[in-house]
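If your schedule permits, I should be very grateful for your opinion on a structural question. Thank you for your consideration; the sequence and its tokens are set out here:

===
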Amino acid sequence: MSQRKTERWNRKLAELTAAHAGHPLLAELETLLGNYGKLERRLDKVASISDKMQSEMLRLHEALGASEARFRLVADNAQDVLWKFDLERECITYISPSIEPLTGYSVEESMARTLDDSFTPAAAQCLRVTLDYLVTHGQVAKSVVTLERRCKDGSTVWTEDAVSLVHGELGCPREAVCIARDITARRKSQEEQKRFVAMVSHEFRTPLAIISTTIELLMVTTADLDAATQREYGKIQKAVARLTALLDHYLTEDRLDAARRGLNLQNSPALALLKDTQKSAKALSNGHSITVEKTGVPDTILCDVDLMRLTLRVLTDNAVKYTPAGSQINLACRSNPRGGVEFVVSDNGPGILADELAYVFDKFFRGRRAADKPGSGLGLHLAQCGAKAHGGTLSVRNRPEGGAEFSVWLPDKSVDNGNN
């Protein structure tokens, strides 16, 4: 109610009060007028709030328009392909110009094509399943899929697409926003790697089978073998069996696919890893004393068992290889004062030359003391890669009492730190 109206109503009420003092309707009239005034003041507040909301919505609309313009500017100049897909109409509503150098189709041609036109049947089905999953699992923000796209010249390319959903005003999924990265070269490299590994595996298996058969025949047919020769034959058998097991375990298509997907972290018994390493090293040792220190070993640690087993085997094999016959090698696993856990492989051999300590993890580096030993200089580098893959480190030092000590430190991912 305006101020003038309020003043006029107050004057009229005063006149009525003076003329009809004590009339019962006057009290009701005063109450009504008071309520009417409160209601009008509240309506004024609502109108003010409404004006502010309209002003804010206008500002947000302008900001959204500017944001969309910036998005299109970025998308139009990006190397990756950015594209939008309307979930209700099942059509592409936007695709960045980078689609043309990738597939040969222009933006207009690409937007006119359906999913089945744009992708191979398997890829189109995979994308639909992914979209359905994102729609039905609202808590999942994004999914990454590998898709095979059709090109204008009849060929195909592979892309890795990060798919996210955009929701409408009522919270319902409205469209998918996707970022596609060309991984065709990577796929070709992986296929070539598979073929190479299959060839290497096959070429190794044939001579290994011949060596194994020959040793077995020699042990059976050769009479009066002395103890030293029998031990050497036994070592050859163990070495062949170990190498065959490595081929079976690591150089398989499933294992390579798993490695490409990343670490396969599991809760693994730390003591079992140490004992496996001990057993593997004994097959190559020449009278070495290889012991496992059981004090302070965590019950379980979170790691990729295969990768950590390989890392520890490399370190222990090196200790056997570069220490004299009969040397002592100790394996341990314990909590580290700075947090996390560490595997330690130590020996009482000659150690590492001081000027070479900084280079032992370099690819293809071989120290002066390794000149008369077979090898390629890759073992310690691979072991370091295994530690880094876990977010850890691999370090080496010469022990004051003699010998070398290698430590694989892993972040604090132990599940149970109780002692065995």
Q: What stands out?
A: Residues 414-420 have pLDDT under 50 and may be disordered. The first helix runs from residue 3 to 19.
